[in-house]
């Protein structure tokens, strides 16, 4: 956060995560911490004096699967895991987490939720935690992180009984309600679209599966508040208010209300919509040194182009980056501003593979909203498993999706704004890994991006393309490639070729022969 940023009225306090440095979790949870045994749980004494018990199984999983914690995790996990049953505690606050992409924000709420569930009897009649995400891919990713910490049922661990459910597609609501009436999931992960359906179906919160929700998590909050979301905001507020009313009427409970946690990498602090969520004494967890920090391991470049020669500049870069350096393993993400343009780039690279690459072929994968949930899962699995792969997509994948081992991100054209740029390039150079980002756009567009990046102490540098590309890929070859590409797109428009059809040898020969005629 820059020094001249105006803090909105809805933020009451700020926790600066710059003060939390990486250490091995086996040593301490926070700087100056000690770890003490406390029966089946572990007590972690934090540097600011917060004592909280952490389920022993969770601590063991953290030690084995996460060797280091990011500063945001070291700040938020202890805060949310602290015993908040005292309604007069100064720590009884909702929180907003504003941290760069790739810093493990999901773990900030997964651990506290499971830790809380491990201490109390599970309620089969109500959802305990609802997590809202902007896309089904992020919902599945969140689900998979929960799964990392749920022990097998034969271990006898209390946590093995916790039920996690993802609602990411169309549901028969009456059937779903009947199924969950007496066996509610403890954690419900929902897309924004499903939340909208819930808000219209469950009009009486008191008699619904949401009557005792203790945790309300909204991941990528800025993606949600930028839509027409008033009904969903009112629905989440109604869930929170129902929990407050229920607990206030219970003389045996001193806790004042449920816990709201909002997370984002590019939250707009000036957005008035956040205030509509009625946050209680909200604390902002962020870095005071930079509000949109990019990884120090990220190299950022630009290649000047106009619309007409952008395809050639892309191929020149691929030749220079992959083949001149003899890379055997690489994962690339190419972002465009529209689904239609993503498809054209996908076809371009499929034909490039077919026409000009002999041994060094790479897998070309296209991500679109039209894919079924099963097809999307298969696509991501193929991308992760291939040694050489290129995934082309629009911005739906740039938010929160964990596509590991990405070496390079390419912006095919100027991103619509600096926040989109940050989200895109944040897919690479993650967790101490090196990565590069290349933006192929007009000079004016590059200058505009650099102007905004200078305030963050970074800028795009020119990428110098290979000088021998024209020798290998002559103008006549490029013209032939573009001619076949145009013919391929004509086939699609005429219904002779489906959008998701692969260009196999038979189809290629048919198109190539038609083009030569």
Low-confidence stretches: 1-5, 22-49, 248-256
Largest sheet: 8 strands, parallel
Overall helicity? 25-40%
Number of domains: 2
According to CATH, the fold-level topology of the largest domain is Rossmann fold
Q: Can you list the strand order of the major beta sheet?
A: 1-11-5-10-9-6-8-7
Structural class: alpha/beta
The CATH homologous superfamily of the largest domain: P-loop containing nucleotide triphosphate hydrolases
The global form is: globular
| Percent of residues in β-strands | 15-25%
Rg, please? Answer: 25 Å
Q: What's the architecture of the largest domain in CATH terms?
A: 3-Layer(aba) Sandwich
CATH class of the largest domain: Alpha Beta
Model description:
It is a single chain. Mean pLDDT is 80; it is low at 1-5, 22-49 and 248-256. This protein has helices at residues 56-65, 71-81, 107-117, 136-149, 173-180, 192-201, 221-225, 230-248, 310-323, 339-356, 373-385, 418-425, 443-454, 469-472, 475-493, 505-516, and strands spanning 13-16, 34-38, 41-45, 51-55, 95-98, 129-133, 164-167, 187-191, 215-219, 259-264, 283-286, 298-304, 330-335, 363-366, 388-393, 408-412, 435-441, 461-462. The protein folds into 2 domains: 13-286, Rossmann fold; 298-516, Rossmann fold. β14, α11 and β15 form a beta-alpha-beta unit. The chain is globular, with a radius of gyration of 25 Å. The strands form 3 sheets. Strands 1-11-5-10-9-6-8-7 form an 8-stranded parallel beta sheet. Strands 14-15-13-16-17-12-18 form a 7-stranded parallel beta sheet, with helices on both faces. A 3-stranded antiparallel beta sheet has the order 2-3-4. The chain is 36% helix and 17% strand. The chain contains 16 helices and 18 strands.
